[in-house]
Amino acid sequence: MHIVTSTFRVPEEKAAEVIAIYEKRSRRVDKAEGFLKFQLLQNEKKPGELTVYMVWTSKEMYLNWVRSKEFKEIHEMEKNYPDQELAGIVPEVHQYQVVAE
Known about the structure:
By secondary structure, the protein is an alpha+beta fold. The protein is 31% helix and 30% strand. It is built from four helices and four strands. The longest helix is centred in the C-terminal third of the chain and has 10 residues, at 69-78. The radius of gyration is 14 Å and the shape is globular. This is ABM domain-containing protein. Pfam families: ABM (PF03992).
């Protein structure tokens, strides 16, 4: 399995707005081959720190998604958020290979 996290920070007063955006996400990734799970995590001590957590069957399946038309379309839409402060956020992405369970 392949785990991908994408952590970003928003002003605490905007955290609920960002969470609402993710609650209404398109779910297009859910249909991608090899996709297993999506979760949005909120840091308990720093409420403005949010992490997208995704699980894939393999790194190859994840990379196929990243190279897909759907991925590009979704991330292009993010640039059009009405709140330009949120549109300009650059996440810190990490990838992990599951090596033991």
